[in-house]
Amino acid sequence: MYHTTHRITAAGLGEPVILWIAPAPERQSVSARELLRNEYTTVPYLSSISDLVPHVLAAD
Question: In terms of domain of life, where is this protein from (predicted)?
């Protein structure tokens, strides 16, 4: 598995959220380098199908 996934429930969010954490840079393979960051940068281009794309709360 490339990333670590957590389901988080917190007061004030209304519903559970999913947290994805990428591995440390030295643990990323060459073919998967920056995979989650690349995925995040595509979100604006998918606005026509935004109902099908997860809502991003924050990115680091």
Answer: Bacteria
Q: Which two tokens stand for residue 36?
A: 């989650």
Residue pLDDT, tens place only, 14-26: 899 999 888 888 8
Question: Looking at residue 45, what is its pLDDT?
Answer: 93
Cross-strand partners of 19: 6
Report residue 39 as tokens.
């995925």
Reading the block at residue 42, the tokens are 């595509």
- How far, in Å, CA of 46 to CA of 12, rounded? 28
Quote the CA–CA distance of 23 and 11 in Å, as a whole number.
28
pTM listed for this prediction: 0.64
